[in-house]
Structure formats: C-alpha cells, structure tokens
Specification:
- It is found in: Cytoplasm, Cytoskeleton.
- Its main location: cytoplasm.
- The chain is α/β, with parallel strands linked by helices and 525 residues long.
- It is built from 17 helices and 17 strands.
- The protein folds into 3 domains: 2-117, Phosphorylase Kinase, domain 1 (2-Layer Sandwich); 121-287, Transferase(Phosphotransferase) domain 1 (Transferase(Phosphotransferase), domain 1); 297-524, Alpha-Beta Horseshoe (Leucine-rich repeat, LRR (right-handed beta-alpha superhelix)), CATH 3.80.10.
- Helix content is 41%, strand content 18%.
- Helix 4 packs antiparallel against helix 6, helix 6 packs antiparallel against helix 9 and helix 12 runs parallel beside helix 13.
- The longest helix is centred in the N-terminal third of the chain and has 31 residues, at 2-32.
- The chain is elongated and about 85 Å long.
Amino acid sequence: MGQQLFSNQAKNQDKNLIKKQEQDSIKELLNQYNYEYIALQGIKQSSQVIIAFSQKLQCNVAIEIFKILNTQKNGINLQELNQQITSNQQFRNEKYAMCIIELIYDRKQGLLGIVTELFDSDLITILDLNVLNIDQIIAMTYQLIKGILLISENVIKSSYISSDSIVFSKSKNCFLIVDHEAKVNLITQPVKVESKETDSVQNSVFSIGLLVTETLIQRRLTSIEQMYLKHQNIFEVLPSLKNSKHFEFISKILYQMLQSARNKMFHLQALLQIIDEFDIDENSLKSMKLKNKNAKLIINTISDIIKATNYYDELELNLHSFKTEQATSIAQNLEKCQNVTTFDINLGWIYITIEGATDILKILQKCQKIISLGLNLRGNRLGAEGVKIIGEGLQMCQNLSSLNISLNSNNLDAEGAKQLGVSLEKCLNITYLNIDLSNNKLGVEGAQYIGFSLKKCQNIKYLNLNLKWNFIEVEGAQSIEMSLQNCQNITFLYLTFGLDKQRSNVLEQSLRKKIIHCVQLIIYC
C-alpha cells in the first residue's frame, strides 16, 4: 500500500515536471518572437491555445501551439504554411473571418505556433452555458456560412468543421471558424485547392449543419443519426422536427445544409440568399454568456494595463506613487479594455491631495462600463474638497452596482461626509456598498449626513459601513440607525461605530426589529 502510494506520487511529480518543461518551452518560443505569455485559454486534442501579449502590436493575441513529432519535423513545408497564412492575412478587416497574424516555429523544440486575433470563447463552452434562441441560431448560421464563403473565395482549403473549430469574438460580435484539422493537415501534408466550389466546401456546410441541428434540438446527435443524415433528409432522421415551431428555418436552411454533401448542384451563394430572407438579428448574440468564470489581471505597472485588452474581465492595479501623467496613462489604457467590468485600484498611503483627486477623476471618467469598482484611498490627505471631486467621478459611473471605497485616515470632517453622501445618493444602481471611513473627524454631524444620504439609497442590498474612531458617539450611531429603517431592501448589514459592547448590542436588537428582511445584521464595537 505504502509503495503504491509512493509510486503514484512519483508518477504525478513526473507528469508535473513534464508539464512545466512543456510550458517553459512554449514561453521560450513566445519570447523569441516578442510575445509575452499571459494565460492558457484551452487544451485541444492536438494543440493548446495560449493568450499572449504582442509587444509589436501592443495587444493580446491567441496562439495555437502544436507539438511536432520527431518523425514530422523534416517533412514540414514552412513555405507552404507561410503562403496559406499570407492568403489568410487579407481577412484582417473582415468581420466574418479569423485573421492569422503570423507563424512562429522552433524546429529544435518541435513547436509550431499559429498567431491569430484574440477570441473570447468557443462553441462548446457557449452551448454549455447557454440555450440559444432561434434568433441567435439564425445569426450564428448566417455568420458561419459567410465565413465559409470568404474562405472558399480566397482559395483557402476548408474541411469538416467540428465544434471546437468554432469560436466567438466579442469585439466582432461574431462566430468565426478556426479550422484546427486543416491546420494540422497543413503541418504534415500541405494541400492545394483546385477550385472555389469543391467537395470540401460542401463538407464544411454539412458539418456546420450538424452543429446547428444539435444547437436547435439541444443535444448531441448520435453517431447513427449523423450517419443517416448523410443519406436521408432531416425530417426522415428526426421526424419530430416536422412539428417544430421553427419549421420554416429547418425546411429552408437546415434541410439545404444537410443535403449539401450529396447535392452536386449545391451553391453557397444560393444558400446565403435564402438565409438573407430571414430576419437576421446579430445583436441577439451580445446576451450570450461566454465564460465559466471571470479572468483577473493583477498588475503593479501602469503600462501593463493594456494587457487586459479584450481578454480580462477584472483588473487590479497596485501603485506606490501617483502623478498626473500616470493618471492620464491609466485613463487612456483603461478605455481600451473593452471587457473589464471589475476595476480595483490601490492608492493607499501615498499622500494624495486635492490635485491627486482631480487626477483620479480623470480615471473615473473612463469607467463607464465598470460594474464593480474598488477604490483604496486610505492614508491620504484628500479632505472634504478631494472627496467632493472623487464623488463627482463616481456619479459618472452610471453602470456601477458594486462600490468598495476606503477613505480611512483622510482628515475628513462633517463636510467631507456630506460631500460623499451627496455623491452616493446619485449612484442609483448601487446594490453592494462597502465604505470605510474610520479614523477621521466626522463627529455626530458627519454621521447624520451619512445617515441622511443612506436613507435615499433604496436599492442597497449589502451594506458594510465602518465609522470607528470618528467621535460619532451614541447620538451619531442612533442617527444612522433611524435612517436605515427606510432601507428595507438590505439583506446583509454590517456596522462599526466604535461604541462599547453593551450599546452596540442595544442598537443591533433595535435594528433587527425594524429591518425585517435582513438575513444578517451585525454591529461591531
């Protein structure tokens, strides 16, 4: 038993070592061509897809890495591959085609990388996370057929297309074909396309027809059903579709696509003309969920913000100094990060004054798409005027639903509390609010201002308010308590007043009776 356990541990260590060596080899290849490894996006049967930052293009790209066997190395036709890539590069400004940027290769390591524009998800993941409606299915079908048309018109070989060969680009709002199988074939057996309307195009249309059928019926086709669909029409193989409310789409589009492989008279343009008769709503695709979880980038250098472009959803920036030119750079780079909806910026204990608050305003002006904002400003010298300026920036973040702001130790008085409160009143969409105002000079009057503003924040469901070390006394705490009675949507409430345990307990019991829907309510000493 003990020997077997030791043996399994040794095997796992060997696997981890091999995996690390492979990743190190890939990073070495990327460095040779001025790419910086960012993340592993996915592992395929014969390749893996890497997200990397291009120093030349100053943006993120996708790189599909193939491991070349020793027996294949001498047979690779790099000239043929480069010709194919050159043909594909004309798709750079095409919406419905994936643009290949360049080929990278290390014969010694046996690695081949095909660099493409970045994409956000693949069809397999999308179908796992969504049930597409008919508008989305029609839009997807239209986009993929347009993609095949572009490929065939430019004499680039297409073939049988599987679900992992279809990806989605959020920036283009479009499904794209990334033909993995054709790429693998090019590595070992370069091929030439002799005509524009070949059997391979018909096979591509047929294979997409299978995928669209699976999307429509919300299950995988069995191998027998797929085999029958090569020889019979869709209604013979799936008779239940005769009664489908989407019969028109099935009979006019899917029927033609699945007949394409055996229809010698099939023409891609004719199929597109039929699809054009339908109401194609490509905007319907914007509501699809693309990822299982958000990707977060943590950086300490402003210039690295651009690495969040088109991939990361969450961005955390930690700075040890802050100047006007830095704020301008942050704002400019943040504007390019189309996917970022969560932004945390840590500017604690670097002595920011009113001038610095004006610089922060520049950043907040570019946070129009931000849903969740974390602003750590503790230990600075903002005062009431600085908080007022930052508050003006918060009001511009109209999509903001979650705010975590720390103004601990900022020399704030009652006027500072008033200015912050006025801004919070105008952030109408906030449901999650975490405010740390501890170690200031708010006093009873400042607590009253905070309470008065919270009274107007009717949408808040989560509130964590820290007013410790502010001389608010019992009177200030009671003012907060009375105001919160009007916030009946609060389900989680955490308050810190800096009172003794007995008085905190009395206030807590009083609030429990008045905020009846609160799941958790705690008042800390």
